[in-house]
Write the structure tokens for this entry.
Amino acid sequence: MKIEEYLSSLPSSIISGEDVELSDEALREIFRFAEMTENDIFYHLGCGSGNSIAIASQEFGVKRSIGIDNNKEKISQGEKLLDEKNVTNGSIRQQDIIDADISDASVILFWFSDEKIIEKMISKFQGLRSGCKIITIWGPLTGYMPNKVDFPYILNVTPFKKAESLRDQMLAIFDTDCIDFAVAWEYSDRYSKAIGSRNLENDRFLTILQTLVIWINAKNLGIACGDEIPEPVKSYIGILKTFFNIEVEHLLDH
């Protein structure tokens, strides 16, 4: 089957990241990356069980931290967590992020893969105060140049700077003149570790898939190193096809 068919067969909660909780250490890395201070008002859009709100408030001393999620069960878990930790300057709302008032935000963590949601939220972000920091994971804000990158964490600051092309945006994210297999693997591995599960086999499989996606996108954009397909890429394409019945060759522009 083609990789698109494979991905569509997975539960939507996995694809959307709804059931993926960032570790406490990953959240700390993100907050340090954003250089968050006591003057910030932090929002986590899709906050899950609320660990980010507690950490932002208690360890980084933000002025206020607000989590927004539309999952009633997770909101309940989050409220219980904040109560247990006696977080007085943090709160969680059950709300659709598209409808939420985030006008006072200075730092926002936004990790969504749905293109329709991303498009609507970019329009919403553009109306925020100058200097507001938007942090995404793995994927950048579509069509805009990042202000800062520590992959898989990407930061855009309002007002956004338009990317002249996807090629320019991708080179800025990977901070290189061309992308070879080693770069694709390193960045995929960083992502797997950042969202790491307790299943190392799943993480390895994710790294292989993401490596191929990065390299193939680079090849199609003309920013892969060299004209030939590297042997490791050929090997992993073969492994996916032979052992998992997943085909990715059609993604290559021939």
